[in-house]
Specification:
InterPro entries: A/AMP_deam_AS (IPR006650), A_deaminase_dom (IPR001365), Ado/ade_deaminase (IPR006330), Metal_Hydrolase (IPR032466). The protein is an alpha/beta fold. It is built from 16 helices and eight strands. 52% of the residues are buried. The model has no long low-confidence stretch (mean pLDDT 97). Bound molecules: inosine.
Length: 341
């Protein structure tokens, strides 16, 4: 544990890249697994630790989908969402853009309106009872193809829950080229949603270019391989297109071989705006505070540097000016008080 840990723990934070089902705590996953004994997911939180060791990215997606399979009723959705916010509140996360995959639930038979009501109900309760502001990014699960794209787009545009701010694309990249999703991103953007696809997590920089030119990406999920293309890095820096970086995730899914090889530092040195994120925290044995510790080590930051990093996430968010200013001011006040101790 680094000496920055207590500072980071109390620091007000925003998280921009974190998956809904992927944030279910071991307790919640175990509880859902016990409710649905036909599943292969362990019902014991201890056994989950081993279950969440991944041989590669494809294995991670298989395990992820086995947990998705446990969420079967609107009440499961509501419980999961509120509990995720509770974990965020414990870490002083004030604001989160949570990536939700409605297709996974509607395809499993959850009524679409009941699904929206469940997440919205949890969002309001989280804000009121926990002081955590949640917003949604609806993502297309890439492996499910154009059918999922059509359905996700329809749900986003036609049902448009109040908390929805963005439209994304997740899952595997290999064999799932980004350009085919252009019509769906065009529709979502025309409806006023922000474009936030994953790209360059498990494939090269061309996927990031495709996300920018074909999908109108305003932020990139992961974008890890961007560092292999100097021109791309310069483009991201110049146009202030942030990368959502999730260091421990990249090691856990074996997208990056070792933490000391993580490209975060190279991104920052190229002047790219970055946000630090936890992705699927319990599955990767991490949380946002730990990711800030990791980033502080990779970037050799002191408390002030960590506070600046937290402000970059606020800057990269889809909050309005007043919302950004409010959290940035909280970060400044907290940091000043900490440094004056
Ligand atoms: O790190 C990640 N990269 C890509 N997709 C992810 C990640 N974590 C969770 N998902 C989720 O995987 C599902 C199956 O496609 C999607 O729902 C996506 O949100």
């Amino acid at each position: 544990m680094s000496e920055l840990r207590p500072f980071i723990a109390g620091l007000p934070k925003a998280e921009l890249h974190v998956h809904h089902v992927g944030s279910a705590s071991p307790r919640i996953v175990a509880e859902l697994a016990a409710r649905h004994p036909d599943s292969q997911v362990p019902t014991d939180p201890e056994a989950l630790v081993d279950y969440f060791v991944f041989t590669d990215f494809a294995h991670f997606i298989d395990v992820y989908l086995s947990v998705v399979d446990l969420v079967r009723t609107p009440e499961d959705v509501r419980l999961l969402t509120f509990e995720v916010a509770r974990d965020m509140a414990r870490q002083n996360i004030r604001y989160a853009e949570l990536t939700v995959t409605p297709f996974s639930s509607t395809r499993r038979g959850i009524d679409e309106k009941a699904f929206m009501d469940a997440i919205e109900d949890a969002r309001r309760a989280a804000e009121k009872e926990l002081g955590v502001v949640l917003r949604w990014i609806f993502d297309i699960p890439g492996e499910a193809g154009l059918e999922a794209a059509e359905e996700t787009c329809r749900l986003a545009v036609d049902l448009r829950p109040e908390g929805l701010v963005g439209f994304g694309l997740g899952g595997p990249e290999i064999g799932v080229p980004r350009p085919q999703f252009k019509p769906y991103f065009d529709r979502a953007r025309a409806a006023g949603l922000h474009s936030v696809p994953h790209a360059g997590e498990t494939t090269g920089p061309q996927t990031v270019w495709d996300a920018l030119t074909e999908l109108g990406a305003e932020r990139i999920g992961h974008g890890t391989s961007s560092v292999r293309d100097e021109r791309l890095l310069a483009h991201l820096a110049e146009h202030r297109i942030p990368l959502e970086v999730c260091p421990t995730s990249n090691i856990a899914t074996r997208a990056v071989a070792a933490m000391d090889e993580h490209p975060l530092r190279k991104m920052v040195e190229a002047g790219v705006l970055v946000s630090v994120n936890s992705d699927d925290p319990p599955m990767f044995g991490t949380d946002l505070n730990t990711e800030y510790e990791v980033a502080a080590r990779l970037l050799e930051l002191d408390a002030r540097g960590v506070a600046d990093l937290a402000k970059q996430a606020v800057e990269a968010s889809f909050l309005d000016f007043a919302g950004k200013s409010r959290i940035a001011a909280e970060i400044d006040a907290y940091t000043a008080a900490w440094l004056a101790r």
